Amino acid sequence: MTSLWWGTYPPLGLGTPVGRGEGIYRQDERGASLALVLDAPSFVVGHPRLPLLYAVSESPTSDFHVIDVSGTPRIAATIPTGGVDACHILLVDNVAYVSHYGSGDVAVVVLGDDGLPTANTPQQLHGHDGCGPREDRQEGPHAHSSALAPGGKHLLVADLGTDELRRYRILPDGLLEADGIAAHLPPGSGPRHMAVKGELIYLVCELDHRLRTLRWTPGDHAADVIADVPTTTVAQRTGNDVYDAHVAILTADDRDVLAVSVRGVDVIALFDLSPEGQTHYRTSLDVGEWPRFFAAIDGMLHVACERGHEVRAYDLASVLALPAETAVGAVAALPFTTAHVVSPACVATVPA
Predict the structure, then answer these.
(1) 8 Å CB contact between 102 and 142
(2) Which of 50, 108, 127, 200 has CA 20 to 30 A from 340's CA?
(3) Contact at 8 Å (CB) between 331 and 234?
């Protein structure tokens, strides 16, 4: 099997002190084991051509790491990100865009042909102002993730704290120019992660548990909500609340299915997409405790069950073939394989 590289949180989870032995796990046909000790590497991305893994330490003094995995994993470079609680990396060509939940900043890290940062600090750090109605989660900006807007000329940043999709124009060298707000979401919605296909943006909102479809207007460089549905019909099962997490488009047999992970409910919800892009809820799959992230790799759906301290793998074709729920709130189940990983948060692969 392709080696999987899992980023993790400390053993007691997000929000607890870092540096408690957590790090990068490697999973292969022999199982999963800790490959490199690193402070809270909660998000990882693989280089498309080189045996390099990028990770960010989600901590008050966040760092951006380049890890050489061509042999025994080693840190090839580390630079500070300049923000607080780095939580997401978007890699576009030779630029890494790093989102910071704690401070709301977006850092721009330019990479050389060798995949290493070209400077000892980010080339840019874009901050933001604002807040939302939820005093416990929206006291300030919280940049949770970024994605390329339809057309690829703008970077969109999902700001959970201000209920906005922030917009940045991408310059020829990959640097960013602040360009206002692409979309204002309902107060208290908390936009978190998004998936883009064609002119449509599928946005999962963590705080009001809604999946919103937005249509991009190229001339205005703006997005308007055209559909709004609950992320799942299943009720809360673990934890003290519901926290929607990741969203991605899964493809098989020329058919697209939208998947959303929901923590507390502990499922991945599946939505069929119409040719026009409308979402139609089908069912939800039981995927273990606190599914923070998932990815389709080599015909399998891999899920990071953070609080279950395990990673699960499901046959992707079986997941996509699940029938519609038999009753409102029903939970589907499928066979899976599992491996022990302490507080898994994200998964990536790199070229062999």
Answers:
(1) yes
(2) 50
(3) yes
